[in-house]
Design a protein that fits this description.
- By secondary structure, the protein is of the alpha+beta class.
- Among the domains are: 138 residues, no CATH class; 90 residues, Pdz3 Domain; 76 residues, PDZ domain (Pdz3 Domain, Roll).
- Helix content is 46%, strand content 21%.
- Helix 3 packs across helix 9.
- The longest helix has 34 residues.
- The chain is elongated, with a radius of gyration of 27 Å.
- 28% of the residues are buried.
- The C terminus is likely disordered.
- Its EC number is 3.4.24.-.
- This is Zinc metalloprotease.
- Its main location: membrane.
- Pfam families: PDZ_6 (PF17820), Peptidase_M50 (PF02163).
- It comes from Arenibacter echinorum.
Amino acid sequence: MTLTLQIVQFVLIISILVILHEMGHFFPAKYFKTKVEKFYLFFDVKFSLFKKKIGDTEYGIGWLPLGGYVKIAGMIDESMDTEQMKQEPQPWEFRSKPAWQRLIIMTGGVIVNFLLAWVIYTMLLFSNGDTYIPSDSLKYGIVVDSIGEQLGLKTGDQILMVDDKKTRKFNEAVLDIILGDEVTVNRDGREITVPLSDEGKETVFATQGKNFLGYRSKAIIAKVQPNSVAEKAGLMPGDEIKGVNGVDTQYWDEFRSKIGASANQELDISVLRNGTTKHLGLTVPDEGIIGIELDLTDLRVTDNYSFLEAIPAGYKRTIQVLTDQIRQFKVIFNTKTGAYKQVKGPIGIVELMSPTWDWVYFLNFMAMFSVWLAFLNILPIPALDGGHVMFLLYEMISGRKPSEKVLETGQIIGFVILMGLMAVVFGNDIWNIIKKFL
């Protein structure tokens, strides 16, 4: 059931984004009286699941869920309809329109993707605010595992800067560390700059970064699961765990480590409840989970926004997401980090979807993915929107149209590049699935 829900969420997000992206091409084309022959969600290779012609346009749903397209008359695109291009140009064709109109038609999809992300972030900030854990004022510093230590970090460090830039939010600091060259921390009262090695990053990516860096917090219970080991032992929300078997346990990571290493053992848990210390006994089950959730209210901060304040804040968030995505190419193209092995395709992305229906997560993911699609589509690769824009800008600057032969060759080269990238991405997905069974 969980996998089904994740697939439904992913397909729904892709469908919405593809339809809106293609509308970004469709409506300007219609406005400039350019004939649109097809408007498809997904690709209809050989056949389609549904199609209906309304006016000059055939609307349909293909069977191959890798995107979608609009086929505009008089345009060299992935359909490679060269027969049409051999005919005399007609007034309703793309090639007959002024360059500035063609530029608007080709950038329409990317603009819609960017605006959609901006609107989503604006509405989320207005309705929910921005809740985060500040990285520059963590009360108890960070907590790292062996992988974090390989990067040069230590539990208890307080992050001051990454690459001479202060980071306000902890989640941003984590990404900055993965993408950065050095991190400055406060360690035992001393300011230390730690170089971030490619070898350390390779280990982070090889393990998909699980738990290499977290934030330290007091072991205060927020919630106790019904019928759990913790509930049966008498633990309650608001309890602060102070020790295990007589050994002081100040922080959550210390308590979690002790529980994880004590399967089938009886433990004496000392908790502070309403100013009084109580001792409770429990036996840790095989899986090492006792059924409690951590209270982070003393670490979290929420910034609230009025509607007018949320508009520029939503724009800033959109630009930040775009900037972070561009920066990721720095480590992806650095073969020493091995980050290219973790690039995810549709199969891998499904695993990132929430296992439960969460509208905030759904909308955040949609906004992030919309920015990602905008960025990918504007890359100057023939067969993408950015490739068409590249040729149009050349035409507008030089005053000369590229020949149809050049456009056709570029389309073929771009298609080969995209197929190669897709092979790598799907190969990574399949290999990561195989590794789970090895």
